[in-house]
């Protein structure tokens, strides 16, 4: 499990937590096709995060073992 803002930093979308926060609050992030404004939203394997038309599969990036 990983928080949305941490995930955005991990995949390189946002270089800092502050920038990740603003992307989320500005409505630029969708989780599983739904607009998400909670930076602490917990992502699990199988979730899909979309930012600026590019989609990331959480399960392929985060190892849950």
TrEMBL record:
Family matches, as SUPFAM superfamilies: Alpha-L RNA-binding motif
- Keyword field contains RNA-binding: yes
What's in the keyword line of the UniProt record? Answer: RNA-binding
UniProt domain RNA-binding S4: residue ranges:
2-60
Q: Name one Pfam family in it.
A: S4_2
* Entry-linked InterPro entries: S4_RNA-bd, S4_RNA-bd_sf
Highest taxon above the source species: Bacteria
By its UniProt entry, which PROSITE patterns does this protein fall under?
A: S4 (PS50889)
Q: In its keyword annotation, does this UniProt entry include Repeat?
A: no
What is this protein identified as? RNA-binding S4 domain-containing protein
Provenance organism: Calothrix parietina FACHB-288
């Amino acid at each position: 499990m990983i928080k949305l803002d941490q995930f955005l930093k991990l995949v390189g979308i946002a270089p800092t937590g502050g920038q990740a926060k603003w992307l989320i609050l500005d409505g630029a992030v969708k989780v599983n096709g739904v607009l998400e404004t909670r930076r602490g939203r917990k992502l699990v394997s199988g979730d899909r995060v979309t930012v600026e038309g590019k989609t990331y599969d959480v399960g392929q990036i985060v190892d849950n073992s």
